[in-house]
Amino acid sequence: MASVAADPVVQAGLAAEVAVLVAAAHRGGGDMSYLRVFKHLLHFPWQVHRAFPARTMHAIESAILNTEQQHAGELRFAVEGALDLPELLRGVTARERALEVFGNLRVWDTEYNNGVLIYLLMADHDVEIIADRGMHQRIATGEWENVCRAMEALLRQGQYEAAVLQGVALVGALLQQHYPALGEKRNELDNRPVVVKH
To answer: Which domain of life is it from (predicted)?
Structure first.
């Protein structure tokens, strides 16, 4: 697969196809760039599994479980390698996709509206945090943004596991501050990280 992506003929063909599609999207008012399209088209599923092997996924799950014992919130982590071409042509942003994943994973479906999703779109190196309305009322947008920026700094260095573990810890600290654990709590959402696939 990697040798195909490195083939100059394949890259030239992709470049021509993308140029036509991007031009068509711009005529239709879409919001996309050549660079973003290339990043997504040249991002392969194996790259997600290389960055997030089973050992890393288990470490993330354990971190979520541990932090949820300290607060009353529910936390999920989802990673997606790249958007597909129709989404790129529509100009779907990482934020819009994160909202969709939030709904698909039913993070909103908690008794106290206290679910939080940390979503990573690898091709964009973009982290989005979606908090249910219960959390959103107490925690300022700037606090979530600080977590995203801290994670993205580590992602740019290729430190995927460290980035996510730091994000889980920082979100956990915010939740502990605003939603401390009160006695025994029921785990409403699965703690396992999710690899989003099309």
So the answer is: Bacteria
At 196, give phi and psi (nearest 5°): -80, 130
Residue 54's contacts (CB-CB under 8 Å, 6 or more residues apart) are: none
Q: Where along the chain do its domains lie?
A: 2-43, 47-196
Give whole-number Cα distances, 15 to 34, 45, 82, 124, 168, in Å.
9, 20, 17, 19, 38
Task: Give the SS3 label for residue 138.
Answer: coil
Give the model confidence (pLDDT) of 108-160 as tens digits.
988 888 899 999 999 999 999 999 988 878 899 999 999 999 999 999 999 99
- The CATH code for residues 47-196 is 3.10.310.50
Q: How far apart are CA 193 and CA 57, in angstroms?
A: 6
